[in-house]
């Protein structure tokens, strides 16, 4: 085994690898850029080497700098994590040349799988199912129909030069194939000046399901089940789970065996992932192979009890696999939610800044991995597990230079429902302040009926949130639970207020038991009866909810039991009430005496200021270009200016037709969120 | 007998109706509550004891003798806020537009006299069209009687004004002399002369809202200390403020049970100061992490944002906080921020509220605008206020404490009791670059030499230890333990006794 290993990565994955290396008694070396001086992976590693300025192309992906760090530290092996140099054949070659072990597959395998066309060819040769299609030129409509029949309907007719949906048709029968071919050809000729057309199988209700494989250098290979990664936003995975709610044992076996066959065909030796697209009839087709550790590998670890990083390191050190395919058992269900520093209310724009508060839920070990990463047999009944892979800490800075993913929250349960329920509570308990993040969106997905049913496809987010994420409206039952909880919390706070010094003797304030709770536009008159163990809240219809909690005023997280079920609230202060965040909802809650409520009802509703005639800066950033002048008439969709944030140029466009009346920003200006860039008449 | 008793009830019912249901409805239609409803929200349930319910005016001019409603446009009395006594007057816009008559003024004066005598705060809920014109000079005399009492009560009991409707002309000067003015957004305004007069005299066209609305007074003029969305919110927040204040100048600030560990460690504060000395950070994060339960009542939040003022609690007891805000103008001192902080410091000193000062100040803002505006005298106000204050004073320097501004911000030399610094503190006459350019003027052409000199200066002065060597800094503390250190410091000062020499009063550079 190695004595010292260098991790050529940063963030959560570097921390993740360090944890396993520590467990194996291997010393760890971190590398860091200027932006990561104070980062968690640097803190965790036994030693750390500075490799340059913040941009990755001047630090983390510069092979020479990593090689120098290896030399300086005397590391015998390198784990590349994912991204950066993990699938870079040149890097693997350089390591080979230097006699340093690469914790990943051989160079040849990286090269073979790195090219789309080559990999597809190898896959076909290895007997792996690929998307049926005809790559050659198609002469006329008759030929198109013939080919379509060979492939089997439905088919997709695509322009070679196509993109953005142009020159693309889906055909379900001969007539449609004939028409589709003609119109695609015309459109392609007009749009791209290139009328070459090809036809392939159209995959209906596509799911993204991938197989984890593990191979050693002695010709052994196994698969560790699948991961369902269909919940994606613009090809960025958001939620993953293992196993897939869709696969049956036969399909799993077929996919697994093909994946192993492919791995063996390229002499694979490490952990790797074979990605498939699966249609509504459980037909599966090879997409590509990722020759590295996947971001979402923890869900596989949680249901198999196998520490994939440990296995990768052992394989790299030349060890033979300890287990055979028969040893692989999938136990229970695991779900991963990726926490991104992206603001869901602002169309998922990246958010940067200081994490003024960062308190993940406590990790709880259970299930297959509970015994120090060793296989633990059958899972205990009724237990659940929480795992959080993270690379950030409270007081740390989310910079603009790297991936906005800040944590991977995983839960495990004996069943899918149990894992989802555990995830809901874990998300509610996850405290992140200082930056915009997608926790509310994740909570919304966990409560989405379609997700709960398991009927998901890669179009889930696009279909279910076509206008973006606009927050969550909670159902009546949940509102009542929150109303009961906040009444109890308000009551505790008011009782405390009466205990202030300087009171008039014998004229103390008595806190009443009747209250009216106002939230999400609803009013609930309630009565509270408090006792030493908690309080009972009675609603107008006589229904009661028992509230128990050790919450005290000022705590930002309230863990309660309401009506016998757990309720976790993030509690903030607003003028005269609480800001409550739970289950993806963000509520203003007011608890008032009946008289206060009566008078509050007389207050005029104030509408937020009309911003429709303003262009607001959607993120903190730098104005690089202003495309219009005062007096210009702009059309809907016309580019108005460019704001650079997180190294990304964002073009801001007109939402409607209008005339520019005032421009408040010039190129070079640094703007905060919601600053007015320009005004319209 | 029964008849006699029921007559009282009838008269009371009459008085409670103020200007009648029609006017009450009109008041509601404007989004405003009535004077009595406001008192209900301000005070503990059922605690209000009214005075002078049957007072009526004595004017006989212009047919006024025909209308003599009970109460005369103001409701006065006392009650409790969380069991603590306060006096209150609430002007009734439904009666003569809340205008101030001789008797209206007398009612206010009566409760002010009692408040001073009995040591309880006065809270005024203002909603008045101005002087009762029919009464002429009698009304003006009434204002002046109130003014005199505001002056006498100042520093004896806290006085809070809530502007909940119009407040114009002479009427503004009573709130102006109280400790805090709060306004209700969109339904209140304050000005000395209204838009019509402004137009006649200066030709300026301006709306009442622009001239004297909540936004104007919280952002531009600094006349108001805060603004709230509506009456209900405003009164709830005044109750919250009263929980921070002592009842009078003979009492210690209030203490209440707290649910926060005074030794709470905040590791994240160790990374609050950015690596680059020119990068701002949010000082409010530090305030919230020091405070009990993260509870901070900010005063003048929207004005001179380069300094932050407000109240927190430590171990359940009120502490006033003054802090430079590096996010705005680099946290420098200027005319506005000096005035804002000076007034706040003097309020705290009046009422025995200990002061916590958090320092990150690069100096005073330079420029003709500042000098012509008299930054010398305005800056001196803050220096004077700190220097004369005898309450417990604890200071924490987080980063920059440069030049005269270092002296001003509650330094050891002006009787700071505990002067702490974080290891990131830089206590010097000025930044290294500026200092080097003066000391080594001869080398100015030589970039290399200047760089070396700058480095030397930084090594020598860009730290808290030179000051600590001299005892100007009592202790260099870890950022993460700031709450514990500061709480303990104030705990040790609970019996502090310090007296300034006898004087009639001082002569602060107003």
Layout of strands and helices, then pairs:
The complex is a heterodimer of chains A (681) and B (510).
Chain A: E1 4-7, H1 11-23, E2 27-32, H2 40-44, E3 47-50, H3 63-73, E4 77-79, H4 89-98, E5 101-102, H5 107-114, H6 116-125, E6 133-134, H7 141-151, E7 155-163, E8 166-171, H8 174-192, E9 197-201, E10 207-215, E11 221-233, E12 236-242, H9 249-265, E13 271-278, E14 284-290, H10 297-304, H11 308-316, E15 333-340, E16 342-343, E17 349-350, E18 353-354, E19 357-359, E20 385-390, E21 397-398, E22 405-413, H12 416-429, E23 431-433, H13 439-446, H14 449-453, H15 460-464, H16 476-497, E24 514-519, E25 522-531, E26 534-539, E27 544-549, E28 557-562, E29 565-574, E30 577-582, E31 585-592, H17 594-600, E32 614-616, E33 621-626, E34 633-634, E35 639-645, E36 648-653, E37 658-663, E38 670-671, E39 676-680
Parallel strand pairs in A: 1-2, 1-4, 2-3, 4-5
Antiparallel strand pairs in A: 6-9, 7-8, 7-9, 10-11, 10-13, 11-12, 12-15, 13-14, 15-22, 16-17, 18-21, 19-23, 20-22, 24-25, 24-31, 25-26, 26-27, 27-28, 28-29, 29-30, 30-31, 32-39, 33-35, 33-38, 34-37, 35-36, 37-39
Helix pairs in contact in A: 4-5, 7-8, 12-13
Chain B: H1 2-16, H2 21-29, H3 35-42, E1 49-51, E2 74-81, E3 84-91, H4 102-118, E4 122-126, H5 137-153, E5 159-163, E6 166-168, H6 173-176, E7 180-184, E8 189-191, H7 195-202, H8 208-212, H9 214-220, E9 226-228, H10 231-242, H11 283-290, E10 297-299, E11 307-314, E12 317-324, H12 335-350, E13 355-361, H13 368-372, H14 375-388, E14 393-402, H15 403-408, E15 418-421, E16 426-428, H16 432-439, H17 447-461, H18 465-469, E17 475-476, H19 482-492
Parallel strand pairs in B: 3-4, 4-5, 5-7, 6-8, 7-9, 12-13, 13-14, 14-15, 14-16, 15-17
Antiparallel strand pairs in B: 1-2, 2-3, 10-11, 11-12
Helix pairs in contact in B: 4-5, 12-14, 16-17
């Amino acid at each position: 085994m190695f004595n010292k290993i260098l991790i050529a990565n940063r963030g959560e994955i570097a921390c993740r690898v360090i944890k396993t290396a520590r467990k194996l008694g291997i010393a760890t070396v971190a590398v860091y850029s200027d932006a990561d001086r104070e980062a968690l992976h640097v803190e965790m590693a036994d030693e750390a080497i500075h490799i340059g300025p913040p941009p990755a192309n001047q630090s983390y992906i510069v092979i020479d700098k990593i090689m120098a760090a290896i030399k300086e530290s005397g590391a015998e092996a390198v784990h590349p994590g994912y991204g950066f140099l993990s699938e870079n054949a040149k890097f693997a070659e350089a390591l080979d040349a230097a006699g340093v072990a690469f914790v990943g597959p051989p160079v040849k395998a990286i090269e073979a799988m790195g090219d789309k066309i080559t990999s597809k060819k190898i896959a076909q040769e290895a007997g792996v199912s690929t998307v049926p299609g005809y790559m050659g030129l198609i002469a006329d409509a008759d030929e198109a129909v013939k080919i379509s029949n060979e492939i089997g309907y439905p088919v997709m007719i695509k322009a070679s030069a196509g993109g953005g949906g142009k020159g693309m048709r889906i055909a379900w029968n001969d007539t449609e194939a004939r028409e589709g071919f003609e119109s695609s050809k015309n459109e392609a000729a007009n749009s791209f000046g290139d009328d070459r057309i090809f036809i392939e199988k159209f995959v209906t209700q596509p799911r993204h399901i991938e197989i984890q494989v593990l191979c050693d250098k002695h010709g052994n290979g196994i698969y560790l089940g699948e991961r369902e990664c269909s919940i994606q936003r613009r090809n960025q995975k958001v939620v993953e789970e293992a196993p897939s709610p869709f696969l049956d044992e036969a399909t799993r076996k077929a996919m697994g065996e093909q994946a192993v066959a492919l791995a063996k065909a390229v002499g694979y030796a490490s952990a790797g992932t074979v990605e498939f697209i699966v249609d509504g009839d459980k037909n599966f087709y090879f997409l590509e192979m990722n020759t590295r550790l996947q971001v979402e590998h923890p869900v596989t670890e949680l249901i198999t009890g196998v520490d994939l990083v440990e296995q990768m390191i052992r394989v790299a050190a030349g060890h033979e696999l300890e287990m055979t395919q028969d040893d692989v058992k999938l136990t229970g269900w695991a779900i991963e939610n990726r926490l991104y520093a992206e603001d869901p209310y602002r169309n998922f724009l990246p958010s940067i800044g200081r994490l003024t508060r960062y308190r993940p839920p406590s990790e709880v070990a259970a299930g297959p991995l509970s015994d120090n990463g060793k296989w633990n047999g059958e899972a205990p009944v009724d237990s659940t597990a929480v795992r959080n892979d993270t690379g950030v800490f409270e007081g740390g800075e989310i910079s603009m230079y790297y991936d906005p993913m800040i944590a991977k929250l995983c839960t495990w349960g004996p069943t899918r429902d149990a894992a989802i329920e555990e995830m809901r509570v874990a998300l509610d308990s996850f405290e992140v302040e200082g930056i915009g993040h997608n926790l509310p969106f994740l909570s919304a997905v966990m409560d989405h009926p379609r997700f709960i049913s398991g009927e998901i496809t890669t179009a889930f987010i696009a279909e279910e949130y076509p206008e973006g994420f606009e927050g969550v409206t909670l159902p009546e039952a949940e509102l009542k639970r929150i109303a009961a909880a906040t009444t109890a919390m308000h009551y505790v706070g008011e009782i405390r207020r009466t205990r202030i010094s300087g009171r008039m003797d014998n004229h103390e304030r008595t806190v009443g038991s009747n209250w009216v709770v106002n939230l999400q536009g609803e009013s609930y008159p309630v009565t509270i009866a408090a006792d030493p163990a908690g309080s009972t809240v009675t609603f107008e219809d006589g229904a009661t909810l028992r509230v128990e909690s050790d919450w005290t005023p000022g705590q930002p997280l309230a863990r309660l039991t309401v009506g016998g079920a757990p309720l976790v609230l993030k509690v903030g202060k607003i003028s005269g009430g609480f800001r409550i965040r739970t289950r993806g909802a963000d509520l203003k809650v007011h608890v008032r005496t009946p008289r206060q409520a009566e008078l509050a009802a007389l207050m005029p509703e104030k509408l937020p200021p009309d911003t429709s005639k303003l262009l607001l800066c959607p993120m903190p950033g730098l104005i690089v270009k202003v495309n219009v002048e005062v007096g210009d008439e702009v059309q809907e969709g016309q580019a108005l200016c460019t704001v650079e944030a997180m190294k990304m140029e964002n073009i801001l466009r007109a939402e409607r037709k209008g005339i520019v009346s005032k421009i408040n920003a010039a190129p070079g200006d640094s703007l905060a969120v919601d600053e007015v860039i320009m005004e319209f008449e | 007998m029964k008849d006699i008793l029921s007559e009282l009830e009838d008269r009371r019912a009459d008085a409670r109706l103020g200007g009648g249901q029609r006017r009450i409805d009109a008041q509601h239609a404007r989004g405003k509550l009535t004077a009595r409803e406001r008192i209900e929200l301000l005070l503990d349930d059922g605690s209000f004891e009214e005075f002078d319910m049957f007072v009526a005016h004595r004017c006989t001019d212009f047919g006024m003798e025909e209308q003599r409603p009970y109460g005369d446009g103001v409701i006065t009395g006392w009650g409790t806020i969380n069991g603590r006594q306060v006096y209150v007057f609430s002007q009734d816009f439904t009666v003569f537009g809340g205008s101030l008559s001789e008797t209206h003024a007398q009612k206010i004066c009566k409760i002010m006299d009692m408040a001073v005598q009995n040591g309880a705060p006065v809270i005024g809920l203002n909603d008045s069209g101005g002087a009762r014109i029919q009464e002429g000079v009698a009304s003006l005399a009434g204002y002046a009687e109130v003014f005199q009492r505001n002056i006498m009560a100042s520093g004896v009991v806290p006085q809070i004004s809530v502007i909940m409707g119009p407040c114009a002309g002479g009427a503004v000067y009573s709130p102006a002399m109280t400790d805090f003015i709060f306004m209700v957004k969109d339904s209140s305004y304050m000005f000395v002369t209204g838009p019509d007069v402004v137009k006649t005299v200066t030709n300026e066209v301006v709306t009442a809202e622009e001239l004297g609305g909540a936004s104007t007074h919280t952002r531009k003029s600094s006349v108001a200390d805060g603004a709230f969305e509506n009456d209900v919110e405003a009164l709830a927040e005044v109750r919250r403020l009263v929980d921070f204040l002592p009842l009078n100048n003979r009492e210690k600030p209030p203490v209440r049970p707290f649910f926060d560990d005074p030794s709470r460690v905040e590791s994240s504060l160790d990374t609050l100061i950015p690596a680059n000395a020119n990068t701002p950070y949010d000082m409010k994060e530090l305030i919230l992490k020091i405070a009990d339960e993260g509870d901070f009542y900010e005063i003048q939040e929207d004005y001179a944002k380069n300094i932050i003022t407000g109240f927190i609690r430590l171990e359940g007891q009120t502490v006033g906080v003054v802090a430079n805000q590096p996010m705005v103008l680099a946290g420098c001192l200027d005319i506005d921020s000096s005035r804002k902080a000076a007034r706040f410091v003097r309020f705290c000193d009046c009422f025995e509220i200990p002061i916590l000062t958090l320092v990150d100040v690069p100096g005073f803002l330079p420029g003709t605008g500042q000098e012509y505006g008299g930054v010398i005298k305005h800056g001196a106000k803050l220096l004077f206020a700190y220097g004369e204050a005898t309450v417990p004073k604890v200071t924490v320097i987080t980063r920059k404490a440069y030049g005269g501004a270092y002296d001003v911000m509650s330094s050891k030399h002006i009787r700071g009791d505990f002067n702490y610094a974080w290891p990131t503190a830089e206590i010097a006459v000025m930044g290294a670059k500026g200092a080097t350019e003066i000391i080594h003027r001869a080398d100015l052409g030589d970039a290399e030499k200047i760089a070396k000199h700058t480095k030397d200066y930084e090594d020598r002065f860009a730290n808290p230890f030179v000051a600590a060597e001299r005892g100007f800094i009592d202790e260099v503390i870890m950022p993460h333990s700031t709450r514990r250190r500061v709480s303990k410091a104030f705990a040790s000062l609970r019996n502090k006794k310090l007296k300034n020499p006898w004087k009639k009063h001082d002569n602060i550079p107003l």
